[in-house]
Amino acid sequence: MKSKPLTIRAGKGALRYVRKHGFDVASIGTIAGASGGAKWLVLSQLDRAILSNLVPKLQGPVHLLGTSIGSWRFACYAQKDPIAAIGRFEAAYLEQTYSERPDIHEITARSREIIRFVLGDQGVDEILNHPVFRTHVMAVRSRHILATESRWLLGLGLVAAASLNLVSRQTLGLFFERALFYDARDLPPFFDLTGFPLQQIPLSPDNIEDAVVATGSIPLVLTGVRDINGAAPGVYRDGGVIDYHHDLPHSSEERLTLYPHFYDRIVPGWFDKKLGWRRPRPEHVDRTILISPSAEFVSRLPNAKIPDRTDFINYTEAERVAAWRACTRACEELADDFNEILEKDQLAARLQVL
């Protein structure tokens, strides 16, 4: 029998809740989105299904927790016409082009162009005044030599951070400070995070674009964003450095988190990608439902892989765009599977342990 396109895993608390009460859309209190760059394209059709068939049934406030590309997706979710916003984002992301050897400034400028195109004239106001969603953007403020744009000094600092991270994740606090840009209308369950230095900055019309750009500013790939309005002076970078897939409390005790993800596992930080033993704390994902493409589905994608940043190097521009377009078309299967799960109330039967 052909496997299902989606794999659905749940923390123990979410598993108990859904099996006892069934899946109630009104129980969702948080939607989480991870870092991952071009990997988001595998979710673009699933995002549309969530926005069309689940979001209209939500009861607010629902917190959107994003780092990097997760925050870019949620900048679409919280607009008045989120389907149109996702469409703009997908088109701009697929069609991005660069010179033969783009430098860090060219890539940064193109990122600004994309987010401004996605937000349009009204996007900022719509996000900050959304009746249901509360948007929260997680970035980091760089400390010491990691605040420089000198490639060799920044590279040296990253090597030091990665080396100490092998010993303990908490050592990242020596190099980076969490920067939570939050919607002040309702504080999220992850507002008072511990474990790392934390700065909390209310989102406003004057800082939302910078916050979203900053959380996607991969060190050595894009320049950091300096001195964001309302935040402490400094250089702000990719929130995935600490919170790659969110090893933090996702939801409050009485609600659940929906987590559309590229993978069926959670990697705590950017430097943990190759550290198989580094896993999230069970209590952080206790009430989380993780939805991801199955391994069998991924094997049928172009080149048998989810798009990623290396595609810019490994393919010609025409090859990359063709592969990415084929991927987004193929991922309609994920949306169809999700819609069927909702229509036939199959979520409880599909759950596996996270």
Indicate the structural class: alpha/beta
Mean pLDDT: 96
Count of DSSP E strands?
Answer: 11
Radius of gyration over C-alpha positions, nearest whole angstrom: 19 Å
Q: Shape from CA axes?
A: globular
How would a textbook summarize the main sheet? 11 strands, mixed
Uncertain regions spanning at least 5 consecutive residues: none
Strand content: 15-25%
Give the total of domains: 1
What's the N-to-C terminus distance? 23 Å
How many alpha or pi helices?
14
Helical percent range? 25-40%
User: What is the chain-wise order of helices and strands?
Assistant: EHEHEHHHHEHEEHEEHEEHHHHHE
Name a few traits of the molecule.
354 residues; alpha/beta; 11-stranded mixed beta sheet; 14 helices; globular
Quick rundown:
The protein has 354 residues and is an alpha/beta fold.
Question: Can you give a write-up of this model?
Answer:
The protein has 354 residues and is α/β, with parallel strands linked by helices. It has helices at 12-21, 44-53, 69-77, 82-94, 104-119, 123-128, 151-167, 208-215, 240-243, 295-299, 311-314, 317-330, 332-343, 347-350; strands at residues 6-10, 28-33, 62-66, 133-142, 176-182, 198-202, 225-226, 235-237, 256-260, 288-293, 351-353. It has one domain. Helices cover 37% and strands 16% of the residues. Strands 1, 2, 3, 4, 5, 6, 7, 8, 9, 10 and 11 form an eleven-stranded mixed sheet that branches. The two termini are 23 Å apart. The model has no long low-confidence stretch (mean pLDDT 96).
